[in-house]
Amino acid sequence: MKRFTLFLGCQIPLRMASVEIAARKLFGRLHAELVDLEGYSCCPDPVVSRTMDRKMWLTLAARNLSLAEGVGLDVVPLCNGCYETLTEADAVLRREPETRREIGEILLRFGRKYGGGVRVRHFVEALHEDVGIDVIKEKVEKTLKVRAALHYGCHLFRPEEGEDTWRKPNMMKELVRATGADVVNYGVEHLCCGFPSMHADEAFSLKSMLLPKLEEMDRAKAECVVVVCPACTIQFETGQALLRRYGFRYEFPCIYLSELLALAFGVPSAELGLDFHRSPVQQLAQRLEGN
Predict the structure, then answer these.
(1) Which pTM does this prediction carry?
(2) Cα(209)–Cα(3) distance, rounded to whole angstroms?
(3) Do 103 and 176 belong to one domain?
(4) Is pLDDT at 249 greater than 90 in this prediction?
(5) Helix, strand, or coil (residue 107)
(6) Cα-based distances in Å from 27 to 73, 181, 202, 257
(7) Helix 230-242 and helix 80-95: axis angle, to 10°?
(8) Which of 271, 287, 246 is nearest to 26 (CA)?
């Protein structure tokens, strides 16, 4: 049995319970155990936190990594942002000995020690490589007949040293195709959804960043958008509602990869808590179950 340490982050347990529920069910059906990480904190945020206070950002990330080391299993975040922070902080601490010493001294005050003893694996990597895409395909019970646009999110493009930036996005694409979904190309898959700029300029974030993606998805006749990032989920779901203020109306269901796979594995939508969504994901799931 494959075993991983699960890193849930902040947004998923607080705002997106369906993402966690789906992940636990699909990993369970794959006979892969997700071990809860007791006592973890915010990752923290990979953009604002790092910009404001690099030492604080590294210290919190290193503490989370030290907790995962205590479990002794690779840590698997369900969130792009958590993946970016934990991966980047781990890389910094490995290549900067003086920084590692400084952060280590801080951690010792709280009884923690970072040793660089675990890998950070995005759940896309864990599913595609560690469990195996062929195993995923074998577990599909319900072919999902839907035209799906993929939004990878900026942090999924983060490469390891010498790695193709499209490695993990291509894994995500294969996982979606394994469900039977038709992945539609809409030309601007790599563009940011605009979530970071939402805090500074709502109109710019919605009209100049989110809207162009929605327009191209609409032209490509997509029926839903598949995501792997809580921040992107918030931007697509809340953003579509807010765009009505500016005269634009889109209602794309924004479904998380874990939810899509769970449906394909035959998990009833009623067990996934899809009513937490602000876009019509529940209606999409019910339609797919009826096909």
Answers:
(1) 0.95
(2) 38
(3) no
(4) yes
(5) helix
(6) 15, 20, 37, 12
(7) 140
(8) 271
The span from the CA of 96 to the CA of 30, in Å, is 38
Asked if 35 contacts 3 with a C-beta cutoff of 8 angstroms, the reply is yes
CATH number, residue 91: 1.20.1050.140
pLDDT digits (tens, 9 = 90+) for 150-178: 999 999 998 877 778 999 999 999 999 99
Identify the residue whose tokens are 């792997």: 228
Check whether 236 has a pLDDT greater than 80.
yes
Are the C-beta atoms of 79 and 9 separated by less than 8 Å?
yes
Looking up residue 201, the CATH number of its domain turns out to be 3.40.50.11810
Please tell me whether residue 84 adopts helix, strand or coil conformation.
helix
**Long-range pairs for 203-210: beta carbons < 8 A, 24 or more residues apart:** 203/246, 205/235, 205/239, 206/239, 206/242, 206/243, 206/246, 207/243, 207/246, 210/235, 210/236, 210/239, 210/240, 210/243
User: Does residue 106 contact residue 67 with C-beta atoms inside 8 Å?
Assistant: no
**Cα separation, 60 vs 57, whole angstroms:** 6
> In the structure encoding, which two tokens stand for residue 11, read together?
């947004």
d(CA 191, CA 154): 8
Alpha helices (H) along the chain: 11-15, 17-29, 48-52, 54-71, 80-95, 97-108, 123-125, 133-139, 167-178, 195-198, 202-203, 211-219, 230-242, 257-264, 281-290
Report residue 262 CA to chain centroid gap: 15
pLDDT at 49 over 90: no
Name the domain count of the chain.
2
Burial class of residue 30 (count of CB atoms within 10 Å of its CB; 0-12, 13-18, 19+)? buried
Q: For residue 121, is it within any domain? A: no
- In sequence order, the β-bridge partners of residue 204 are none
- Residue range(s) defining the domain that contains residue 186: 141-290
**Are 149 and 279 contained in the same domain?**
yes
Phi, psi for 76 (deg, rounded to 5) = -120, 105
